[in-house]
Amino acid sequence: MNYFEFESVLQNGCFISLLCATLLSWWEITFTNFFNKKIIYYYQKNKLFFQSRIFVWLSSLFLGTILIARWFISQHAPLSNLYESLLWLCWGILTFGLLGNRAQVTHPSVVASMSSSALLINGFANLSLPLSMQTPSYLIPALQSNWLLMHVSVMMFSYSCLFCGSLVSLIFLAVSQKKLKISFSLQLGNHMLLEKEKNFLFLRTLDQISVRSITTGFCLLTIGILSGAVWANEAWGSYWSWDPKETWAFITWLVFATYLHLRVFQGWEGFRSAILASFGLITLWICYFGLNWLGQGLHTYGLFINQI
Amino acid sequence: MMASTASLLTPHAAKAAQSWLSQNANLCTTSHSSPQPLFIGGSCPFRGRASRRRNAAIVRWDSGGLKQTSSSFEDICQGCRLQGLGFGLGSGKGRGLRRGPVAEVVGGQEGAQAGASGRGSSNGASGVKVANVPPPLKIQGDRTQNGGPNQNGVKLFNGEGDGVSGSATNGSAANVSVSNGAPANGAKQPLNGNAKQAPNGKPAALVGSTTEPPNRIQAPQFGNGVLALPQRLWRRTLRSLSSLELAIGTLLTVAALSALGTVVEQNKSYQFYINNYPEENPSFGFLSWKVLLDLELDHIYTSWWFLSLLAFLAACLMACTSTRQLPMAKVARRWRFLKSKAQFRDMDIIEELPRAKAADLVPMLTTKGYEVFMKGPAVYAFRGLAGKLGPIGVHIGLILTMAGCAYSATAGFDGSSMTPQGQEFFIGDILKPVGILSRMPAAEQYRVHVNNFSIDYMPNGNVNQYYSDLSIVDLNDNEVYHKMIKVNDPLRYGGVTMYQTDWNLASLQARVDGGAPFRLPMAILDDGVGKTGKLFGTFLRTGPAEEPRGVSLVARDFLSVAIYGPDGNFVGVRRPGSNKPITVDGKDIVIEELIGATGMQLKYDPGVPFVYAGFGTLIVTVIVSQVSHDQLWALEEGGALIVGARSTKNKQSLPGDLDFLFDALPEYLPSEEEGRSMERAASGRNGKKASVAR
After folding, report:
1. Which stretches does the entry tag as region Disordered (chain B) (predicted)?
2. pLDDT at B617
3. Among A147, A251, A283, B79, which is 20 to 30 Å from B460 by CA?
């Protein structure tokens, strides 16, 4: 078996397990909401619930293997073009989206959003990008540097964390269909919770997940932008040249800084911060993905418009 | 308020505390022989001048065993004195600034009383003075008010409690603000509206935040001297600049304008804008090339309004850091004891544990990494203070970075060169000043000699790397430095850095009909930006001088040269150095060599150290800011222990962590006799707290 066969097996496996994860989590969401209590109890008792996580870990494993194999084959970190960075993003979403959450907190809605977006990203990368971009190849001179691993990987991890946090905020917006001022001075007792309180708790959990992911992502984004600036100084003599990609990364940083500040100092928790995080998601996506349609600047490694 | 000694410690707890203290003797600040004050679990954060002789005595180590005393309030050093800090934007609305818990307010009152004798600026506007202490908040589900026994009392702070946090307070916070002109003589005047109800019906002093400590600005006292007016104006400007809305608005405006710069092409030629933004059909109805160039939209990032906006942002940052964050850091380090159950509100967790002792909490908290302070029945513990100080570092890092960038932009040198192999240039000729503070570095006198330029190709013909072999030569033609540079590996000498950025084919060396070799200069036919590569060409004359007749030689890279005949037809391809002649138009041409030119970017940037320092600060402090600042208050009252806790980043796991702690707390079941004496005491004395018999 040569490398390409090996990789295609892994890719297919990853895709299938992502598909299973998505479908299973959708099934689980339906179960918790619409079926009667007896069935739910049965599933909970037999620990059959919330097992879509397993498929997510499986696909994360597949993707990790693919990346490591690529690294080995091409002798450089697999971060040289859009295809490879999409794979990293996928892997990051699956791993970080579920890493920060313990078992009891990983509600199927969170799993559903992570796995479906990873599915779409993976599908796009494998099916829509030109084959020339998908094959591991040599690095151009500008990328032949140790900074490649440092800067681009940190940026991809930060994109994953921010993406996860913003996705969870979207779930929040979907679940809370009205404005909810969530106060966190809440102490639980041992009594049975009402439906309303359960919903409240769930929303609060989502809010916490979102803020922790976004905070981590923000730290990593800072480090990524700064390492990119230092690399640019080493390579081109200018640590900031208002390149579109740099500019949009800066804009994303500003938007998420606004998110953190308004959250902490103005008490914008709950609904309003979810709106902000969704806006941040749009900015993030423009920064990472949308700029490839622009076609100019120093970051055009992912340019595929001309090749399609 | 002196509590009786030893009455608060059961023998079991006393032993535990004693053994802990002996094990952690290195934390004691003084010797054990003489009764000196020390702190449990840490040292006084305020070892400043004011506190040297006035270390707040919380626990006294006595030769007879551990005793507890609480010093009177006045003994607490100046730095630790509970102060209410005032701020006022003049409007008194206090929008966007958070309030601390009521403890601040009450402490301020006491502090004001104690320090009312006009003691210096730090005490001057002991801002938040309440005219009257508000009634305790009616807590939902508080069964103690019904008089019945309460088990692990659970306090649900939703609904009612919601209104106290966050948004609702902003309007009502008006009542707790202090105007700038707090009376200089320290008179205890109630401020406007303090006694009134807030608009939403809650008593004024209940406003508070769930998450953040007070975010206040010192309002020092001014005299009536000459500098009073400028000082007051300066203060007012600072306070307006430090408004959060202003900063966020500026931030988002910068973001939006930066985004505009990615949509409108930057730094293109005049003709480009004339072509693409025609006057007859302007984009959006008004954006023709004239408007675009007038608004400086072709170079947004260096336009005066963008730079002013950035400078304004920097000013907001500096104002915010100096007026808010630094005082906040001071406040965050203070320990604030809560003196009554009513003051336990606005926290993430509040629990009441019957028949537990505060002293038992202390060693458990210290093992968890808290710094614990104890004063009588009250305990205050915190950990992770770095998380509170981190954001200050972030702001400082940002300011440092911006200062470095500004310095670079005004004091740097820049330039690019395209030098054929074998030639040289003066550094001073290439470097051009960037701003008004630019001073030419000493390296200007040196020459850079390009010894060789080569391209390393990969098997499939793609470029692997560009190499330039450079020598730095001084005025006496001595080589002082030598390096082979490539992309991502520049040459640094004398503060000047040279980067490999570009290349050209400079000339072609050929021989015609076996004659002497000669060089033909090559010209760029195609810039190749965005496409497959550049194209260079040259013309070899084969006819007499009067006829424009010759052979075209075209090359993309060092690998091959394409030859075209006089009529433009393709004749063949030759690899330079293969010595294989090609016959065109009756002549035998041997292409010997392609000589390249290396394109370099030279830079002299004195601001880089500052920028890098700013970067380093940012990286470190952004990570440090993630440390969670956890605070915990406890109060023994009425035989039960009330514990309140608050966390900035750990809200989710706080209940679990604390449950662990609470479960380990021992519960002191009263003996029959004690129980009877407690009942007797409670019923016998009105208004006085029952003291637990020994």
Report:
1. 110-205, 671-694
2. 94
3. A147
- A186 and chain B: CB distance < 8 Å anywhere? yes
Nearest to B619 among A142, A226, A255 (CB): A226
Q: Find which of B272, B488, B622, B659 to mutate to test the A interface (most A CBs within 10 Å of its CB).
A: B488
pLDDT of the residue at A290? 85
Residues of B in contact with A75 (CB under 8 A): none
Residue of B nearest to A258 (CA): B248
- DSSP-H helix ranges across A35-152: 37-45, 52-74, 82-99, 108-127, 131-134, 147
CA separation for the pair A145, A156 (Å, rounded): 17
Which two structure tokens, joined as six digits, stand for B225?
């001297």
Two tokens at B113? Answer: 């009383």
Structural contact between residues A278 and A255, judged by C-beta atoms closer than 8 angstroms = no
| Distance between CA atoms of residues B195 and B205, nearest Å | 8
- The Cα of B650 is separated from the nearest Cα of chain A by a number of Å equal to 9
| Locus of tokens 């302070």 | B373
B259 has pLDDT over 60:
yes
pLDDT in tens, A152-177: 999 999 999 999 999 999 988 887 76
Q: Strands (DSSP E) along B368-514, which ranges?
A: 371-375, 378-383, 413-420, 424-426, 432-433, 447-457, 463-473, 479-486, 491-493, 496-512
Pick the CATH number of B341-384+630-672 from 1.10.150, 3.30.310, 1.10.720, 1.25.40: 3.30.310
Q: What tens digit of pLDDT does each residue of B541-557 get?
A: 888 888 888 899 999 88
* CA A250/CA A240 separation, integer angstroms: 11
Nearest CA in chain A to B615: A226
Structure ipTM:
0.84
Smallest CA–CA distance from A231 into chain B, residue: B488
Angle at A55 between CA A50 and CA A58, to 5 degrees: 140
Domain ranges of chain B: 235-321, 341-384+630-672, 406-503+601-610, 504-596
Which chain B residues are within 8 Å of A74, Cβ to Cβ?
none
Q: Is B577 left (phi over 0), alpha (psi -120 to 50) or beta?
A: left
Cβ distance A261 to B347 less than 8 Å, yes or no, reads no
What element of type H or E holds A218?
helix A195-236
A165–chain B nearest CA distance, Å: 15
A196: amino acid identity, one letter: K
Instruction: Give the integer Cα–Cα distance in Å for B679 and B690.
Output: 9
**Chain A hits for B210, Cβ within 8 Å:** 183-185, 267
Q: How far apart are CA A158 and CA A96, in angstroms?
A: 10
| B624, containing H or E segment | helix B608-624
A254: chain B residues, CB-CB within 8 Å: 251-252, 254-255
Q: SS3 helix, strand, coil % of chain B, rounded to 5?
A: 35, 25, 45
Contact B127, B87 (CB under 8 A): yes
Tokens standing for residue B77: 């050093």
Please list every residue in chain B whose beta carbon sits closer than 8 Å to the beta carbon of residue A262: 248
Six-digit token string for B29? 């600040």
User: Which secondary-structure segment (H or E) carries A250?
Assistant: helix A244-265
Instruction: Judge whether B351 is closer than 8 Å to chain A, CB to CB.
Output: yes
Q: Identify the CA nearest to A267 among candidates B215, B333, B387, B206.
A: B215
Nearest to A215 by CA among A271, A260, A166: A260
Are B161 and A250 inside 8 Å of each other by CB? Answer: no
Chain B contacts in chain A segment 257-286 (CB below 8 A): 257-258, 261-262, 264-269
> Is pLDDT of B184 > 60?
no
Mean of all residue pLDDT scores within chain A: 80
